[in-house]
Amino acid sequence: MSEIKGKVVVITGASSGIGEATAKLLASHGAHIVIGARRVDRLETLASLIESEGGSVIYQPLDVTKIDQMQQIIRLAQSRFGRVDVIVNNAGVMPLSPLEAL
Questions:
Q1: Looking at residue 87, which CATH number applies to its domain?
Q2: pLDDT digits (tens, 9 = 90+) for 1-51
Q3: What does the alpha-carbon distance between residue 84 and residue 75 come to, in Å, rounded to a whole number?
Q4: 0.85 cut: is pTM over it?
Q5: Closest Cα partner for 32 from 53, 58, 63?
Q6: Which residues of 15-46 are buried (b: 16+ CB within 10 A; e: fewer)?
Q7: Which whole-number Å values give the CA distances from 54 to 40, 50, 93, 94, in the listed order?
Q8: Within a domain: 96
Q9: Among residues 6, 54, 60, 75, which is most buried (max CB within 10 A)?
């Protein structure tokens, strides 16, 4: 995975599950990680863990249903790291309704 070193990766839904695991893995291989999710406390914990292991990470609260927040996280990545190489759009958006309504 040496080709990921130095790449700037934005990950949505990074506070748990696949997003969190992806952030840890890519950071451990030298990527600059920009993480976003609604649960800021979990983002802070993840960012601290990545930094403690020598990784490069920044985070921002993010609700992917809000276009302005999506634009902000991309601008954050660009302002901090100069570009965005990869976006892992992991956050799930699921309509909640009774099965018969589908």
A1: 3.40.50.720
A2: 679 999 999 999 999 999 999 999 999 999 999 999 999 999 999 999 999
A3: 9
A4: yes
A5: 58
A6: beeebbebbbebbeebbbbbbbbeeeebbeeb
A7: 21, 7, 32, 35
A8: no
A9: 60
What is the domain extent for residue 85? Answer: 2-91
Provide the pLDDT confidence category of residue 95 given band limits of 50, 70 and 90: low
The verdict on residue 71 lying in a domain is yes
Is 58 strand, coil or helix? strand
d(CA 56, CA 28): 9
Domain membership flag for residue 99: no
Closest alpha carbon to 76 in 23, 12, 28: 12
Q: Using DSSP bridges, classify how beta strands 8-12 and 86-89 pair: parallel, antiparallel or unpaired.
A: parallel
Strand, helix or coil for residue 52: helix
From the list 99, 77, 102, 97, the residue with the least C-alpha distance to 88 is 77
Q: What is the dihedral of CA 75, 81, 86, 91, to 10 degrees?
A: -50
